[in-house]
């Protein structure tokens, strides 16, 4: 009886595993730019030569749509099986949704030799996150409602979110410039303690919190080179409540810009 | 007691009577009833057990076939789709064109994008492409003389941002021609991060009347809410009075996002201007 039960459990597990296997689409590419015009996407860098798109099986399949082709007003067609249109035009690979966005997260593994641009400007993605992990290439992220999370990324990075939060934990080796902008919510950044950077931290209505021991030497008229113009920084005006700190961290180096109307948290790894 | 002659006769001649023996199954049956030996397993139960194992094996084979078949179909589709994608670059270009025209009119005409691509190619050919080194700085050759202006046409927002930051680092007075290039970048660049860096740079040049006028006019003309917010939050009362009408329009324009309208109201309030 025990053997019988064991065999049934194993069989059911194998069946479930086979059925629940992610859907995948692969494209051979290791140079150029990947442009993702989709929301709630996870991008993972790796040392490979294929862009691999994957998504879990949808919870509910539309049996009535079986055998029919998904049409879209954009003119794109689903050539991936993931409700995505992937178009390779040589230097750029562009990706768009076909039809309405599925309620399943899309993960894209990208060769570290490529650059990535994410444009998540859909109005229907209010609680989503654009997640970039372990990526060593250049990335540009532009979202309206999606939050942005960067983990173990190298840069250069240009990231902006209008209504979302922006969290970032950088790798030990960084390439600049790094510019992070969150208009409505906070920016939380963790950097290597020995990072050499020209920092520009700016918040209109929030506070700036930094880790103990971060050696930021503020840029003032006194330590500017002779003949330079006085910087008309926003904190020099009597009416402004904004806080702006420009300075050199550990002697200066790459450009690190953090800009928000909310709070800024600057930590060390 | 009377002597039983028959019993005596049988007893004396027993060997002659016991010449036949019962078959082994008779004894087994008797032993079985007496439970002296284990009852051998019923052949029916063996058949049932064998049947379950067969069912499990068939299920596993079925699952394997399903998984392999699914994979094969997926791979087949992938190869076919790759061919399709690569074989129709014209269709792709057309689709991209239609998308850009229909969805992103504010980002400039397609001609600009083509010009950008041409410039990128030209830069690559001349080996003038700005190079971002491991220390995070642009290569020195990338931003000499007007090469920063060329770098502003790059498709890479990081390269455009680097060019602006490098120029800001110089802290020298810019020519009118240079300022106009920057005005154009702040009004039309695709990246908010680049536009903000330009705004920061222009603030350094605010001693030039041309710059102050441009910044004030940008408050109403700017189409990027991120930059609009930055412009509004840095307006002084004196500056707000100069563009009172634009601020009032901004605060009431339903096309603006809430944040911008609220910020415009805040500027009007703190400058003692009626909404």
From TrEMBL, chain A:
Residues 223-244 are annotated as: Disordered. Pfam families: DUF4097 (PF13349). Keywords: Signal. It comes from the Bacteria. Residues 116-238 form the DUF4097 domain. InterPro entries: Toastrack_DUF4097 (IPR025164). Residues 1-20 form the signal peptide. Residues 223-234 have a biased composition (Polar residues). This is DUF4097 domain-containing protein. It comes from Dyadobacter luteus.
UniProtKB/TrEMBL annotation, chain B:
Residues 86-120 are annotated as: Disordered. This is HEAT repeat domain-containing protein. Keywords: Membrane, Transmembrane, Transmembrane helix. The chain crosses the membrane at residues 50-69. It comes from the Bacteria. Gene3D superfamilies: Leucine-rich Repeat Variant. It comes from Dyadobacter luteus. InterPro entries: ARM-like, ARM-type_fold.
């Amino acid at each position: 009886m025990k053997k019988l039960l064991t065999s049934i459990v194993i069989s059911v597990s194998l069946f479930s595993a086979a059925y629940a296997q992610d859907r995948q689409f692969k494209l051979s590419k290791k140079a150029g730019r990947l442009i993702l015009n989709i929301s709630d996407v996870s991008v993972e860098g790796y040392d490979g030569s294929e862009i691999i798109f994957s998504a879990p099986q949808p919870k509910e399949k539309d049996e009535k749509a079986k055998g029919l082709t998904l049409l879209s007003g954009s003119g794109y067609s689903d050539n991936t099986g993931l409700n995505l249109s992937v178009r390779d035009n040589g230097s750029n690979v562009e990706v768009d949704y076909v039809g309405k966005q599925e309620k399943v997260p899309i993960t894209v593994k990208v060769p570290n030799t490529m650059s990535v641009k994410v444009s998540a400007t859909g109005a229907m993605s209010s609680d989503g996150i654009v997640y970039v992990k372990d990526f060593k290439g250049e990335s540009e992220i532009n979202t309206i409602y999606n939050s942005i999370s960067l983990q173990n990324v190298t840069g250069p990075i240009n990231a902006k979110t209008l209504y979302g939060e922006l969290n970032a934990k950088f790798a030990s080796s960084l390439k600049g410039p790094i510019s992070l902008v969150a208009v409505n919510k906070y920016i939380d950044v963790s950097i290597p303690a020995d990072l050499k950077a020209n920092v520009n931290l700016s918040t209109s209505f929030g506070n700036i919190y930094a880790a103990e021991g971060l050696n930021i030497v503020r840029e003032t008229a006194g330590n500017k080179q002779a003949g330079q113009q006085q910087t008309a920084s926003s904190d020099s005006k009597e009416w402004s409540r904004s806080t702006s700190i420009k300075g050199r961290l550990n002697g200066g180096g790459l450009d690190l810009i953090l800009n928000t109307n909310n709070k800024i948290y600057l930590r060390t790894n | 007691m009377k002597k039983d002659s028959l019993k005596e006769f049988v007893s004396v001649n027993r060997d002659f009577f016991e010449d036949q023996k019962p078959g082994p199954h008779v004894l087994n049956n008797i032993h079985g009833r007496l439970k002296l030996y284990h009852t051998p397993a019923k052949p029916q139960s063996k058949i049932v057990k064998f049947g379950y194992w067969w069912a499990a094996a068939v299920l596993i084979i079925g699952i394997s076939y399903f998984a392999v078949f699914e994979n094969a179909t997926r791979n087949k589709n992938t190869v076919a789709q790759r061919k399709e994608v690569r074989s129709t670059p014209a269709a792709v270009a057309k689709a991209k064109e239609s998308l850009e025209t229909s969805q992103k009119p504010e980002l400039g005409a397609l001609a600009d994008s083509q010009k950008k691509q041409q410039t990128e190619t030209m830069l690559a050919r001349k080996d003038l492409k700005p190079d971002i080194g491991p220390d995070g700085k642009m290569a020195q050759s990338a931003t000499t003389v007007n090469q920063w202006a060329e770098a502003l046409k790059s498709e890479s927002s990081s390269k455009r941002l680097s060019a602006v930051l490098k120029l800001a680092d110089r802290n020298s007075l810019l020519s009118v021609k240079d300022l106009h290039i920057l005005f154009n970048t702040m009004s039309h660049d695709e990246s908010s991060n680049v536009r903000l860096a330009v705004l920061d740079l222009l603030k350094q040049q605010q001693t030039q009347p041309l710059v102050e006028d441009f910044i004030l006019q940008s408050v109403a003309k700017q189409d990027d809410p991120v930059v609009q917010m930055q412009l509004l939050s840095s307006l002084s009362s004196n500056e707000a009075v100069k563009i009172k009408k634009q601020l009032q329009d901004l605060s009431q324009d339903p096309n603006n996002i809430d944040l911008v309208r609220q910020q415009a109201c805040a500027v009007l309030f703190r400058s003692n201007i009626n909404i």
